[in-house]
Amino acid sequence: MVANQIAAGEVIQRPASAVKELLENAIDAGATKIQLIVKDAGRTLIQVVDNGKGMNFTDARMCFEMHATSKITTANDLYRLTTKGFRGEALASIAAIAQVELKTKQHEEETGTLLITEGSQVKEHTPVATQDGTSIAIKNLFFNVPARRNFLKPDNIELGHIEEELNRLSLIHCDIDFSFYNNGKLMQQLPPSNLKQRIINVFGAHFKDKLFSVELDTEVVKISGFIAKPENTKKRKNEQYVFVNQRFIKHYLLTHAIETTYKELIPEGHKPAFFIEITVPPATINVNISPTKIDIKFEDDRMIYAFLNSAVKKTIGMHSLIPQIDFNYLPEYDFSGIKPKDEIKPPTLTLNPNYNPYNVKSEKKLSTSNSWEQFLSGIKKETVATTSLLPEKIAFTDDNNNEEFLDETQIKCLLIFDSYLVYCYKGSLHILDVKAARERILYERFLNALESAPIVIQQSMFPESISLSASAAEIVADILSELRALGYELEQIDRTSFAVNGTPIEEESSNLQQVISQFVEMYKTHQFLHKTDKNSAIAKSLARQKCNSQLQMTTEPEQQAFIKQWLGCEVPYLSPSGKKVVKCFTNDEMQRFFE
Ligand code: ADP
Ligand code: MG
Predict the structure, then answer these.
(1) Rounded CA gap, 365 and 358, in Å?
(2) Is the pTM above the cut of 0.85?
(3) Which of 8, 535, 563, 579 fits a 20 to 30 Å CA distance from 353?
(4) How far is CA 387 from CA 268, 394, 542, in A?
(5) Measuring from atom 17 of ligand 1, which residue has the nearest CA?
């Protein structure tokens, strides 16, 4: 009955699928130590040895029968899964296509059981002396299904799949001691540890200084884990792990909630690594487990999205924005409004009600500040920092903070190599890359101009005319309104030339022909290389063009004003193209440096 309510299917597609099933069974059996031994990437041998609760003589025979699960009794249990397996078809499926040798012993028993099968036929079933727990060896997988065997990929690929299954389980079961051998070689040794140490053990010591912890604890959802620091993202996307109630899942929405936080902070095309564990009451999710993938539906997608997004944002905000800069200007996150047993509403209330995560067009609404400010504004208005995009406006509204901020920026600074400002700020030595900082300031200013506050235009008495290549002219014609928002009032005269009727009020006289044509060149490459949205591409390109010119900054007040502007940026520590803007040394680091 129960069995009939569960769709059976193709369980074992490749060695890695068998590995997954065996490891999950060992975990379900309460093992604290699990060994995975494979030969030829699992083709000839997959063996899992555990110290779990074992099986008795009869169960050892029964476990190879279809639907021999010992893990559920009613169909309802499906919705409150606490074990990995429940279908009771994995071992039966494996036995049908391999030679299996099972040795198992329950702790309280004197002797264990040996069972040997081949293509589901029992060849031997006898008592045997063996250690507590279970060892299952699967030999010659697909020995009787040549088509399947021939479809296997080269060893390194199959081995990669096996490793991935092991990673997914070992990262969420850090208390279990795992080891993994291929062809007699130790591939992975994972002693019990906390998650951070496990990540380091699995992926390598280079992760040691690359992780920020994420922590959020409410009545409806607990989130914990680690994310990569923005400066440590990679082009590849293979270190992204989200677990919901101890199951590895792939969920577009959750990945998006994390990745969107990194926007603007990392070079385009880069992906952050993350290891996030989400725990929700089982009744609020609907898990539909088919043999090969897990489909999970949350009762309230948007709430989970908002919580995850804010937890990650909080972490990034707290750590990355160079703590020395100023906590007063970072948004605070306060979930204190959410009390146990309250009906949890804040995120639902404050998110765009029309937001549909699956609708790509609405994605822009989600992107960084918009959704975030909406979300925050609903949670606790007064804690939202006044991080305006316009440096002039930064937080000069709050008297106390403002004074401190001003005092703090009356700092001694020094321009060296014509390129770096060196100064001490809040207990740290900063070396600021002027060009990168300027690019950041300009980018945020331009983006703000495009999105909400156009730059004031000064009309020209004698409009200059510029002429461009045909392709450049086409682009300019297409973005005339954006250019106007940035202070450039252009009017097309013929196919390739434009009259410049107005320029940004603060712009000193400049070579307009050069500014516009260089800008268009950058915009073209930008559009071609990266699929950012239009405004962001335009703002980036113009910022890049502008920061090529020499900045006049000879006096100390000028330098201080510049630093102040930069400190007022939303994401000060990275240039729009993802370059580091500042290097900070704390007193401690200085001391260590001279040790
Ligand atoms: P499921 O895990 O879905 O129940 P399986 O075919 O994977 O189905 O396993 C069938 C049964 O065999 C399990 O329910 C469990 O009772 C038993 N079993 C399998 N592996 C082990 C193990 N390593 N230790 C103890 N019992 C096991
Ligand atoms: Mg199982």
Answers:
(1) 13
(2) no
(3) 535
(4) 24, 6, 22
(5) 63
Are the C-beta atoms of residues 313 and 339 closer than 8 Å to each other? no
pLDDT tens across 503-559, in order? 998 777 778 898 999 999 888 877 766 556 788 889 999 999 988 877 778 888 889
Per cent of the chain over pLDDT 90 is: 44
At 142, which helix (H) or strand (E)? none
User: How many CB atoms lie under 10 A from the CB of residue 437?
Assistant: 25
Is residue 87 lining ligand 1, measured as CB closer than 6 Å?
A: yes
Instruction: Name residue 286's amino acid.
Output: N
Count of beta carbons in the 10 Å neighbourhood of residue 182: 20
Question: Which of 168, 142, 169 minimizes the C-alpha distance to 41?
Answer: 142
- What contacts 24+ positions apart, CB below 8 Å, involve 537-542? 538/446, 538/450, 538/479, 538/482, 538/486, 539/443, 539/444, 539/446, 539/447, 539/449, 539/450, 539/576, 540/443, 540/576, 540/577, 542/442, 542/446, 542/486
The backbone region for 260, taken as left when phi is positive above 0, alpha when psi lies in -120 to 50, beta otherwise, is alpha
C-alpha 595/C-alpha 306 separation (Å) is 46
Nearest CA to ligand 1 atom 2: 85
Q: Residue 498 CA to chain centroid, in angstroms?
A: 44
User: Residue 33: CB partners within 8 Å, gap ≥ 6?
Assistant: 50, 51, 176, 177
Instruction: Compute the distance between CA of residue 207 and CA of residue 222 in angstroms, rounded to an integer.
Output: 24
Closest ligand by atom to 54 CA = 1
Average pLDDT for 417-431: 86
Ramachandran region of residue 97, left (φ > 0), alpha (ψ -120 to 50) or beta?
Answer: alpha
Choice from 28, 46, 82, 294 to test ligand 1 binding pocket (greatest atom count within 8 A of CB): 28
